[in-house]
Amino acid sequence: MIKTFFKPLSVILISLMFVGCGSSDKDNDQKEYEGPLPVLFIHGTSGSASQFQSQAQRFLANGYSKELLYAWEYDSGPLADASVNLDSSEYLTFLFDTTTGEGGFNDQIETQIDEILEATGASQINLMGHSLGTIVSHMFLSRANQEGRVYKYVNLDGYNGRDSASPFGGIETLALWARANSDTALVDEANGVDDYDLNQAHIEIATSATSFAKIYEFFNGVAPETTDILDAETETVTIAGKANIFPDNVGAEDTTLFIYEINADTAARISQTPINTDGFGISSDGSWGPVEISKGAAFEFVLEHGTQENADHYFYLEPFYADDYFVRLNTGRVGEGFSEDLTGNANHSNLVIVRDREFWANVDGGNDVLMVNSENVFAQNELAMDGEGLSAGAQSRRLSSLFLSDQDESGDSSYENIDDVTSVSFIAGMDFFIDATTADTIEIQLTPRGDSGLTQTINVPNRASDEVRIISVQFRDYVQSRNE
Q1: CATH 2.60.40.2190 region(s) of the chain?
Q2: N or C, fewer C-beta in 10 Å, the chain?
Q3: 291-345, pLDDT tens digit by residue?
Q4: Which residues contact 335 (CB under 8 A, 6 or more apart)?
Q5: Which sign, positive or negative, has the C-alpha torsion 381, 384, 386, 388?
């Protein structure tokens, strides 16, 4: 997910003269290996493994083991900032140094792939890159001889290799483009296949079931048995993930994660004892879990930042019906991050609502309805569109994270943008009053665009913003019939 998506293609093409091209006589036949190849996902700007979360579950539903699914996470901010603030030649130098320098992105990706191959016994992997992750992937694949490590590559709505001597390092490529890119040049016909889905948006193209079907068949030569995320047959499921500093994608060190089962309707804790009694201490890699939980139950994830007042971060997700090993709880350092741009007092609560599929409002072809305490958030504000029509609105905003706060402390909703938040791609802030004094529970209900008419509901405790600076609500990017 990136602003740098629109950096001129010449930047990447020129860079190939420096980093070299893949072998032109490469034999791209899959080496002998029993079972599917491991999959590695590389995210875009302001991204993480959360954009791979649902696809990983679909791979699991089609027979992959969790040991075959990986994501490479990195700090995307410097590259995104450089694309905006530097001219093309300066950006090229920055990109070259970041990716090809000693210990740079190329070295890091190569190391992770070698570790994957050693751990799995496979001789190659399949690679997926999204948005800025396609730039990172392209630079990596243009390094000589990566065809020995990478069998096939999926390019998700990012850069292309048209006219370069060896597109994507000569690796067989499937390029999936979303609706904003119908005029984008294609990958070289000799090395890749292009597919446009004009019903999907930039983030959605990476996370949808429709894309999964194409990706799975490209990797395996046969269609998947299912594109659903199948419910576990057992009464419990296993979850694990990372608690990371956003958007750096480094572990939220010196924090502790506690998980409480809650009543799905009232959001009250069923017990004051967390299900992980001693908590998960978060270190530099951010990892927590695995932990076994009740299938279909609701939970509160509390990331304790120590003794500092109003520093703990509360997360609420939809119930888990299947194993999930890519849960991401993204937070900020104390005193930093978007939550510090929001006002806090005893009268209102602050929410951030997240989904790895763009929120749309006033868009031809389908809209999402987001209700907070029975009020339609988008009714008075066209943040999902920027109020400028389809091409300049929904596609440029690509809204996936919405911060709600009574920013002017008026006790009313003005629906105006919170500029410090809305200036960042994929993220917006709105002056929206959530009364912290009249109810114990905040109800958030999402009716996704499409024909299903299904709804997703997350109820959270109503916590005043002078005590809890920000409450995170994370919706899945898909909805299945059990949620009726």
Answers
A1: 231-328
A2: C
A3: 999 999 999 999 998 767 788 999 999 999 999 999 999 998 877 777 777 888 9
A4: none
A5: negative
Q: What does DSSP assign to residue 10?
A: H
Q: Which CATH number fits domain 231-328: 2.60.40.2190, 1.10.10.10, 2.60.130.10, 3.30.70.2740?
A: 2.60.40.2190
Q: In 3-state terms, what secondary structure has residue 3?
A: coil
Reported as half-sphere exposure (CB side, CA atoms, 13 A), residue 433 has a value of: 12
For 209, residues 6+ apart whose C-beta sits below 8 A from its C-beta are 58, 227, 228, 478
Cis peptide before 274 (omega within 30 of 0): no
Residue 250: strand, helix, or coil: strand
Question: CB neighbours of 306 closer than 8 A, spacing ≥ 6?
Answer: 254, 255, 334
Can you spell out the DSSP letters for 245-264? ETTTTEE-TTEEEEEEEE-T
Contact 442, 470 (CB under 8 A): no
Q: What are the start-end ranges of the H helices in 102-259?
A: 105-120, 132-141, 204-207, 209-220
The distance of Cα 479 from the centroid of its chain, to the nearest Å, equals 17
- Residue 187 pLDDT grade (very low, low, confident, very high; cuts 50, 70, 90): low
What are the start and end residues of each CATH 2.60.40.2200 domain in the chain?
Answer: 337-474
Cα–Cα distance measured from residue 471 to residue 301, given in angstroms and rounded to the nearest whole number: 10
Write out the H or E segment, with its range, that includes residue 240. strand 236-245
Q: What type of residue is 249?
A: N
Among 3.40.50.1820, 3.30.1220.10, 3.10.20.70, 2.40.40.20, name the CATH number for the domain at 4-220.
Answer: 3.40.50.1820
- 221-232 pLDDT per residue, tens: 999 999 999 999
Task: Give the C-alpha separation, 470 to 349, whole Å.
Answer: 8
Distance CA 76, CA 141 (A): 18
* 261-295 pLDDT, tens digit each: 999 999 999 999 999 999 999 999 999 999 999 99
Interstrand relation of 441-447 and 369-372 (parallel, antiparallel or unpaired): antiparallel
Helix (H, G, I), strand (E, B) or coil at 293: strand
Q: Is the peptide bond before 319 cis (omega within 30 degrees of 0)?
A: no
Count of residues in the chain: 484
Ranges for all domains in the chain classified under CATH 3.40.50.1820: 4-220
CATH 2.60.40.2200 fits 337-474, yes or no: yes
**pTM attached to this predicted model:** 0.89
- The residue assigned the tokens 């409450």 is 471
| Per-residue tokens: 408 | 């002017």
Give the C-alpha separation, 70 to 76, whole Å: 18
- CA atoms of 46 and 26, how far apart (whole Å): 34
